[in-house]
Every structure is written in C-alpha cells, then in structure tokens.
Write a structure and sequence with these properties.
Immunoglobulin-like, alpha+beta
Length: about 200
C-alpha cells in the first residue's frame, strides 16, 4: 500500500533528478526567506522597535521644561513664550540660550528605552537616577505634565541612565545626553541681565 502511495513521487524524482529537485527546494526556501524575513541591519531593526521614554511628548507642542538639579541645587525652568524660549529666574523671564534648549528638546523627544540595568530601588543612587545625584526632567505641553524622568551619568560607569519617576526600572539612555544638561547660568541667552 505504501509503495502505491509513494510511487508517483519516486517516479517524479527519477525523471527530474535528485540534484535538480534539491536546487528547486533551496531556491524556494531562499525566496520564502527574502519575502518574509526582511533583510537589513539587525541593530537598525532593534532600534526601530524600541519604545520612547517620553511617548506623549510632541516636540512642537512642548511649552516648558523643568530641570531639577541634584540635591538641593536650583531648578532651571524653561518656558516657551511668544518671543521664543525663556528662563524663569527669581520670578522674572530672561532670554534663553535657544540652541541649548533646542538640542535638549530634540534629544528628549527622540529618547529611547535602552537595556534595563536594574529594577532595584536601592540601586538608583549608583546609577545616578535619584534626587540626590540625578537630574529630574519634567516636560510640559498644553498645560499638563507629559513626562517626568531622572537622568544620571555616574563617573564610574561612563554611560547615561534614565528612570521614569515613580518607577523602579533603570535603563540605559539612547542616546546619551548628559552633555546637554548644562549649568543653570548657561541656559540664559545673550542678554541674561535684561528681564522680559
């Protein structure tokens, strides 16, 4: 009974030849792989699939950013006004360093979640993502807060880490942006002594 079932297949293999049949099989397999497995850089695919740290942030709609520096340091409050970006200082608005603000906002809007390095709240200080060592960054748009993260870059680890406020998950920042967190006085623009 089995011979009758396989006889047509065996005759087909004899007529076509095993080598041609194997070549046809591998050609079909390669075509299948090309159609369903999109070729390309696997790292680029991984980066495309990463989630944003601040998914609700829309760059064009951001109205303000607060940078709460570690410890008891000052808070840098950046606000969008009709004239552009300003720094709120002692209740008065001063022209802001628009280049520094633009660079920071561009990185924040594109900030992606990297490798999770810890879920242990006792390790927040080690990664610099706590209120003692890190910088808290709060983003506002359309009158409400859309993001609140801690950013840190411990000298010993030489990488930047972020943690969403009220979360224990610490992850690598992609891209690192520590060099964009500048001292408070440098956020002021060309005419820092002239309040608006």
């Amino acid at each position: 009974m089995l011979k009758k079932f396989f006889r047509p297949y065996l005759e087909f293999v004899e007529r076509v030849g095993p080598l041609k049949l194997a070549m046809a099989f591998f050609f079909a397999l390669a075509l299948f792989i090309l159609v369903f497995e999109q070729p390309g850089d696997p790292m680029a695919k991984a980066q495309k699939s990463q989630k944003y740290v601040l998914p609700q942030m829309i760059l064009e709609r951001v109205e303000g950013v607060d940078l709460i520096l570690s410890g008891e340091g000052p808070t840098v409050s950046l606000r969008k006004t009709e004239e552009g970006w300003s720094v709120l200082k002692n209740g008065e608005m001063f022209l802001a360093n628009t280049e520094a603000v633009s660079k920071l906002l561009a990185v924040l809007s594109d900030l992606k979640e990297g490798l999770v390095v810890s879920k242990n709240p006792d390790k927040h200080e080690i990664f610099g993502v706590d209120s003692k060592k890190g910088v808290e960054i709060r983003v506002f748009q359309e009158g409400k807060e859309v993001g609140d993260i801690f950013a840190g870059m411990p000298e010993t680890l030489n990488k930047q880490f972020v943690r969403k406020n009220k979360s224990d998950v610490v992850m690598e920042a992609i891209p690192a942006f520590q060099n964009l967190i500048i001292p408070p006085a440098q956020w002021e623009g060309v005419f820092p002594s002239v309040p608006r």
